[in-house]
Specification:
The chain is of the alpha+beta class. It is about 35% helix and about 25% strand. The chain is built from 25 helices and 32 strands. The chain has a six-stranded antiparallel beta sheet with strand order 14-13-12-17-16-15, with helices on both faces. A five-stranded antiparallel beta sheet has the order 2-1-5-4-3, sandwiched between helices. A five-stranded antiparallel beta sheet has the order 18-27-26-23-24, covered by helices on one side. A hairpin with a 3-residue loop joins β29 and β30. α10 runs antiparallel to α12 and α21 runs antiparallel to α22.
Amino acid sequence: MIERGLDGDNRGPTGARERFLMGERVEDGVRSPILGSWERCHLMGVSPDSSDPPFWEDLDLAIPLVDAAEPVLDGLAAVFSGSHMNVGLADRRGAVLLRRFGDASLMRHLPASHSRPGFVFAEQFAGTNGIALALAERRFCQVYGAEHFSERSQANACWGMPIRDPLNGRIEGVLAFGCPRLEADLAMGTVIRDAARAIEGRLLERSTERERSLLRAYLDARRRVGVDGPFWGRYVIGEDGLARSGLDWRDQVILQAKAAELISSGQRAAAVVPLSNGRQATLLSRPLTSPSGVAGSVVEVVLPLDVPRRGGPHLPRFTDSLLPLAEHAPATLPVVRPRTHPVPVLVSGQADRLVLVGEPIAGRLAVAARRRLELLAEASTRIGTTLDVDRTAWELAEVAVPRLADFVTVDLPEAVLRGEEPVDPRTDLHRTVVHGIREDCNFYPVGKRVDLRPSTPHLRCLDSMQAVLEPDLKAAAGWRAQDFERTDMLLAQDVHSLISAPLLARGVVLGIATFYRSQDSAPFGDNDLSLAQELAARAALCLDNARRYTREHATVLALQRSLLPHSLPEHSSVELAHRYVPAESSVGGDWFDVIPLAGTRVALLVGDVVGHGLHAAATMGQLRTAARNFAELDLSPDEVLTHLDNLVGRLDGADCDREPLIGATCLYAIYDPTTQLCTMARAGHPPPAVVGPDGNVSFPDLPAGQPLGLGGLPFETVEIHLPEGSSLVLYTDGLLEDRHRDIDEALDLLRSALAHPDRAPEDTCTAVMDAVAPQHPGDDIALLVARTHALPSDRVASWEVPADPSRVSDVRAAAMRQLADWNLEETAFATELLLSELVTNAIRYGREPIRVRLIFDRSLICEVYDGSSTAPRLRQAASTDEGGRGLYLVAQLAQAWGTRYTAEGKVIWAEFTSE
């Protein structure tokens, strides 16, 4: 057996175990039963490098399990002779009762406690192993190599198979195999199952005298009439006869239920039972009386040979060795055809198996009680697997059909489907589920509003808050009055009995579940009523959990959407499109933004707050607002990230009661259409994708930086050239993360989806989401696509200005000529005043070099650059002041103005329209 995954790439059991022990979240690379066992071991404080588990000296070995298993284990030792296989038998507490070895020399290499009874392999002592896992999962389990929790067991492989009492189904112990991992064989699963059945057969011999006497009478009767057919010794007693029959579990349940009815009659009978796929099985019931006078019945099933027989590869050596071990036990039974009372349905080409044997009353009660308990146990695992209201309602119906009912309907108020608490469930019910053994029954369809009359059992159950039983629908006037035409059609389809149960949880009525019978001729009884009410109560709790989650999810989603941009600004330098998809399970903290900057530049950013829920959404809103404010200061990308880093650190330390913010990532880019340069920096965020005009897709080598909130290290910026028609694609990690693929595969898909430069940004977004986004995203997805445009060179004019006040007039004159060329004469007066004031201030208070630049885009932008970092300050000049009015004049003339700093100095800019 080879472990799934490769240790080297940290995706196999070894890597998963290491990540688990380091406290990391593990989702891939390990089977769910193994991961569940690891988690239980961690919660119980089991150490992976612990010493030997405890050794119990006072075990009682004089028990039926040991007596039944010893011959089987001796036979296994003979089968495995000369191998490194060891075989063990443990009780239901995990304590080893018996051991056998394929090679006796193995005992010399084990501690004494490992080779004699008493060594305890329970999960709380020995961690994940075959015995412990079989007891915890209550089924056949296998553990390979690094799946063991204990370090000392990493080189081993082991198998565990529960041994049950064949009559009551209780686990009595575990049969375990172990060997070096590299010697593991898939066939061991078949071997251990067959051996466990042999032990269970021997246990059956030691059951109560009444049970054994009936079974002995059955066997004696079959032997007296002889053996016929090719199936001598090929089927196993009890429910296992059906388990290995190849039948679907639903067919097995139907046969067992019908067999219980036949036993309860205590008469000779034959019943043809329809199975799935149009097949049929015949149940044969015969009265049986033991020599001691115990009266009962035996039921056998005759199956068509086209039913596949379940089981692993045939092992002649083991089977031949094992069969003689049970010569005194009814572990295998001959199959015969009764010759004194032939039954027509027993024809050649069919195989029969024992279904049930027992007394009529005791058998009926035991089977019915066990069936109810099994259904409730199954409901606890199958209902509420998701936090979706609609899916939870369907799970209730799927559990109940066909074990309890033939049809199930669920009616819920529309408010519950939205996650709200219903005001009056009687007036706003909608059919949410219709599920049954066939699809042609005339119930109200899914989605239809259901207005119920007060006389119906549905509303009566809401009034009483108790399940209501109608055993005979033909006589149920209140039910028929709801819709005579539809109820007549249901009666014509043999629907004859119902139970309506309120879905009540935490004092809130969430709806109604109704169970119907048609194929089963027996009406519902009191036991069915109790069972239906218990199922409805369990489902209601799950529905309420799903409803509350739906409400909280909707609230968080509404908050998050209100904090995200409702639309993107129009900008001449970039053509924009975006997508945002929240996670299915819980809303996260992803965001994006587009911020116009001075000088026709534009800032693009995406970010991701670690975590999900209301806290992540609120933190995202704070960070997005802060990022916009920092961007308005015209800071460089690395400075913006530094300020955000400081902010996240302060948010964590400001409130001790606040849930700690684990971290956030961000990518910030500034594109300048006048130079076609893009300056960007990132803080632990995935790098952007750049699509060239020729369709070439690249991921710039941008320093990753540390996530926001860690502090201490500077962020680095990178400047890249984006030719006209290039696209810059920013995204969050939710686009790439999918448990069914690795990151490299996702990046390849993204590269292929982007390699179409002729697409518009909207079409690019659609193509990326279709090709790359997970079908069921576990994290938010934010996607921002920006196709760049360059500002034509004839729309930009610049001049170098000497530090000489007399040259100011030359700059004004050149600017006026340029405005005339742009047909902007109406702005000449304001521009002349503005330039005169800004250039004069640069000469007087700044230092060389001094430059003037005019940009004509959607508005006219005037920029004056000088080599000084002295910040200008707008103030209200007093009436007696000689100066201080220049910037005030600029503020009055311009629509907007400001200052941005560069590595060599500063730029004072002013923007105004021609209006």
